[in-house]
Amino acid sequence: MATYQQHIRVRSRKLGLLIYDARISRSRKVESCAKAMGLSVEGYQSIEAGESAPTLPQLESLAFFLDVPLEHFWGNQALSTLASPDPVEQPIQLKEIRQRIIGTRLRIARSTLNLSVSELSFKTNIPVEKIQRYEMGQQAIPLPDLELLASTLEIRNDELFDQRGMIGKWRSDKATAQNIMDLPPEVRAFVSKPVNLPYLELAMRLSDLSAEKLRGVAEGLLEITY
């Protein structure tokens, strides 16, 4: 139990520092971040101080509001100051839906591993009653508890991230934009020109062809050339 409490305390403090860094990097006020997470100012300040921990839906809302990568909260690097985006808040109802989805995901994973709630409680030192409330979506899950449950149930953290909702689309768009930015400059310049769209569409069609069909296309081109 002491090890569990120490893990929760250390993780909560680190989360608080990362959240503080994200807020400062976007020049946002405590009040606006608290509102984005659906918390009172006191509740938000408690999280920044490492005295309590946010839930994953709350953290997703903050990342969305601040326009920072959700992965930042699992990292060790401070964010550089960038222009602040327009605030977009996630309704409380969506957070509750996300919490139920996360609870269902935990319950399915536990069943897949043939673990009872009591066995999961023994492995994590989280009380049985609390796990039951988590799985039913009746209680918000602080992130350190969620990480501990996910690790025990062999779930990657990113498997619990919003995939289909508003925040999921935002994360997908951010990842796509980053992938494009990671391309060599000359490739990025080629892709960005509308006139080159036919070449890109051709490349997409060729990528779907089998090796045998590609050889046939190559042989046809050779016949035309010679």
What does this structure look like?
This protein is an all-alpha fold. It folds into three domains: 2-88, Orthogonal Bundle (434 Repressor (Amino-terminal Domain)), CATH 1.10.260.40; 93-160, 434 Repressor (Amino-terminal Domain), CATH 1.10.260.40; 183-225, no CATH class. Helices cover 65% and strands 0% of the residues. It has helices at 2-25, 30-37, 41-48, 56-66, 92-112, 117-124, 128-135, 143-152, 166-181, 185-192, 197-207, 211-225. Helix 2 (30-37) packs across helix 3 (41-48). It is globular, with a radius of gyration of 23 Å. The protein starts with a helix and ends with a helix. Residues 81-89 have low confidence and may be disordered.
The CATH class designation of the largest domain is: Mainly Alpha
* Radius of gyration (Å): 23 Å
Gap between N and C termini, in Å? 77 Å
Tell me, what's the shape?
globular
Strand content: under 5%
The number of helical runs is 12
What is the succession of H and E elements? HHHHHHHHHHHH
CATH topology of the largest domain: 434 Repressor (Amino-terminal Domain)
CATH architecture of the largest domain: Orthogonal Bundle
- Poorly predicted runs are 81-89
List the helices and strands and how they pair.
Elements: H1 2-25, H2 30-37, H3 41-48, H4 56-66, H5 92-112, H6 117-124, H7 128-135, H8 143-152, H9 166-181, H10 185-192, H11 197-207, H12 211-225
Helix pairs in contact: 2-3, 4-5
